[in-house]
Amino acid sequence: MARALAEAKAATDKGAVPIGAVVVKHGVVIAAAHNGPRDCHDPTAHAEILAIRAAAQALAQDRLDGCDLWVTLEPCAMCAGAIIHARIARVYYAAPDPKGGAVEHGARLFDQPTALHRPEVYAGLGEAESAEMLRSFFRERR
After folding, report:
1. Which end of the chain is more exposed for a tag (fewer CB within 10 A), N or C?
2. Choosing from 7, 48, 74, 104, which is the catalytic residue?
3. Model pTM?
4. How distant, in Å, are the alpha carbons of 34, 107, 124 from that of 55?
């Protein structure tokens, strides 16, 4: 989670929402990314999507079987859908997102009967640091 938090900090330094994500396989970081919708001029360039894309390229495959995703904020519906399609084995996220999250809040995509895959989910690792980074970011912009 430390690496995902470092990615979130890198996003903040660029003026982007501080969210970071890392894909790990067998204890090795395969890909890391931070939020990039503004930098990439792409509304789908969430940290999770960018990390999943980079991991798929690095492994030269579309399925990320046996991979873990570490992310600083509960994934939204788009990212949860990508996690399902990529067949990520485990998702570790720091802070919950009651408004936009879709794992343990909102749509709860992994719990839907139509979900093609259900990763294991672990929440709360690094929650305080991630939540404070997000609060600070938005406090400075209000």
Report:
1. C
2. 48
3. 0.95
4. 14, 26, 24
